[in-house]
Amino acid sequence: MKIVQAIKRHNNPFEFNNKKYLTRPLVLVFGNRFILENGTIYEEIRDLFPDGHLVFGSTSGEIMDDTVMEESVVLTAIEFEKSSFLVKSKNLKTYQNDEIALGNSLIKEFPKEGLKHVFIISDGSSVNGSALITGLENGKEIGVSLSGGLCGDDDRFERTLASYNEPPKEGEIVGIGFYGETLEVTSANYGGWTPFGPQRIITRSQGNLLFELDGKPALDLYVKYLGKKAKDLPKSALLYPLSVKTSENAEPIVRTILNIDEKENTMTLAGDVPQGSKVQLMMSSVDDIANGANEAGRLAMKDRLKSPELALLVSCIGRKLVMDQRTEEEIEEVKSVIGGDAYIGGFYSYGELAPFSQNNSCKLHNQTMTLTLFSE
């Protein structure tokens, strides 16, 4: 596996850390939405990699090695020596905003023979991540693993962008399938958030739209708990996500609020919040988040046969807001576990896609650190 990384800050050209020639590489481009909207960015990267497979995603922060950046673009170009990959993309508008149908159709684009893993980079502001995963899981083989993330837009929640071999655009979902007998891919996630306050029941919801808790408007209750911070919604909600437990035996899933509708008194979350689920507010600290990143690294490394050569990290914008000036500590925790030889790239997201520990089935998570580790 040959890997090249580079960073672009503002209007400056890309700065390479180890420039070398790659043949038909997979080029992962994660960056600030405003820079990706610039009409010249696609052609600039195409000139750098004329035969590359270019995959774009907007972010809430960019990760390269053990550094977290803002208002930049980072790229990781990979030439596989023993493995292969296939990239497919679809747009939500084509499927009349039916994420399940899109996910099912997308996963069927990948030939089954030899497929080991599919990494998803999806629009994060208009896509219901839970429904997307349902479609993907329904169409894939049992032995194929999934991971990835929902694109971000800093803490603005205006629009997010993704694309494959074209300028980034809204509503796009990109899947990257990885093939190879010697290819080893492992993924894991962990949070570090703690529930607090009373447990409530979701008495009215539809998909990822939350109407009522305990028979009362959900937004009213949320605003009450936030107090003065309510004026900064939905940004302030990132500091207090919801723990959602769909049944007594189910693992709790963390859900971030993406948007609010004051007129309808509703909240739009990054994934489904089924009626009857039990929910609690959650909070965290810098140390808890750093420790959670360490645990995510430990879980991803568990039972690996080979040391990772590439680590793709997807962490949540809410974690970044809590960490503030200490954000890089969670990346450093990951690096301390996976070792210093792996190239690290990634982004801060509006949602993370990964299985629970010891479970091959992918789920949508919020407020977690998710790792996907590759070696040939």
UniProtKB/TrEMBL annotation:
Keywords: Kinase, Transferase. Residues 218-356 form the FIST C-domain domain. Pfam families: FIST, FIST_C. Residues 24-217 form the FIST domain. One of its GO terms (molecular function) is kinase activity. InterPro entries: FIST_C, FIST_domain_N. This is Histidine kinase. It comes from Maribacter aurantiacus.
